[in-house]
Design a protein that fits this description.
Blueprint: H1 2-6, E1 13-17, E2 23-31, E3 34-40, H2 52-61, E4 65-72, E5 78-79, E6 84-87
Parallel strand pairs: 3-4, 4-6
Antiparallel strand pairs: 1-2, 2-3, 5-6
Length: 103
């Protein structure tokens, strides 16, 4: 977010919550019509239940999810079949290709 602000990248960040309490911690446009969605968990152990909200939102959005990302407290970044599992210390979001950025 600091990079977004200091470099005037004009990327909008969002969160989402439905009436049942299902929520997405962070969402941002990766293209004009699709989102990358991020869940952030402090646990060091990746469990299947950690992906639930990402999957619920993808189904609800009707195909508007580009990538589902789980950031966790562990040390191994992993590409899973339907998710990117990202160790907290490997997190880097490149905002330079923001669809809302003035050129």
């Amino acid at each position: 977010m600091k990079q977004n602000f200091h470099q005037n990248l004009y990327r909008n960040f969002y969160f989402w919550r439905d009436s049942n309490g299902v929520e997405i911690d962070l969402m941002f446009h990766n293209s004009p019509s699709k989102f990358d969605v991020v869940e952030i968990k402090s646990t060091k152990t990746v469990l299947p239940k950690l992906f639930k909200n990402l999957d619920v939102f993808e189904k609800w959005s009707g195909g508007k999810v580009n990538q589902k990302i789980l950031v966790y407290g562990g040390t191994q970044t992993q590409n899973r079949t339907h998710h990117l599992v990202c160790a907290w210390n490997d997190v880097k979001i490149d905002c330079s290709e923001s669809p809302n950025r003035e050129k």
